[in-house]
């Protein structure tokens, strides 16, 4: 499975593992904290009770987004989803990896994370032919977050081992507000990438140029992308919720000027139905 805008947007649904790709979206598992007024006060028992304790969320939806970062063409992608929290909500597992909270005090939280960067397949688009594949790689990093009322500020760093062998950092803010059964969220973030990452995804070597017809390009480190997100979540019941989310990514700096990039604006939309145990 290779990296694309769909995976970026899906990762925003997870517990905060998505701090290196896009602006953080609220975790569906958090929505249980604002249960509808008529939610049952009875605790589930047995295995279902354990799922409740683990904050398990399952669901599915669809994402409409670019075929690759910088693509002018779009596709629809299915989006199955499972996430869970363990050990008094200190360990979180989602579709993009594992997040472990290592320090919590008042409104500040520091977490370590691990997962995968899914690379890029040249078969995703005719425009990528001749550039070769970017292999998947392990991803390790950390994120610090600070809650200021309804606003959450985050800063994260990710190191990819294998694949692009790159380093990325993301800085963002998100505002969330609950009105009745609805949760409204909006956020913004900026992503920085080192030269290894930029060369892998946006560079064109002389050999790749000869194979693809794209001009030779040697990008440097810098901010590569700004993301704006907005979402609405409807709490249909104590357990069921529906979420719609839109994201606008804007490629910047050397990424924007790359011959690999066909379009600097990268919109994505998603609809998702989930069940929280």
Low-confidence segments, ≥5 residues, pLDDT <50?
A: 1-5, 14-41
Average of the residue pLDDT scores = 86
| Biggest sheet statistics | 12 strands, antiparallel, barrel
Give the second-level CATH assignment, the architecture.
Answer: Beta Barrel
Determine and state the CATH class. Answer: Mainly Beta
CATH fold description: Porin
N-to-C terminal Cα separation, in Å? 28 Å
Order of helices and strands: HHEEEEEEEEEEHHEEHE
Class per helix and strand makeup: mainly beta
- Look at the structure and name the CATH superfamily: monomeric porin ompg
Helical residue percent?
Answer: 10-25%
Question: What is the topology, as strand order, of the major beta sheet?
Answer: 1-3-4-5-6-7-8-9-10-11-12-13
Radius of gyration: 19 Å
Contiguous helical run count: 5
Q: Shape, please?
A: globular
Please report which band the strand proportion falls in: under 5%, 5-15%, 15-25%, 25-35%, 35-45% or over 45%. over 45%
Number of domains: 1
What would you note in describing this structure?
The chain has 277 residues and is mainly β. The protein has one domain (5-276): Porin, CATH 2.40.160. Helix content is 12%, strand content 47%. The chain is built from 5 helices and 13 strands. It has a 12-stranded antiparallel barrel with strand order 1-3-4-5-6-7-8-9-10-11-12-13.
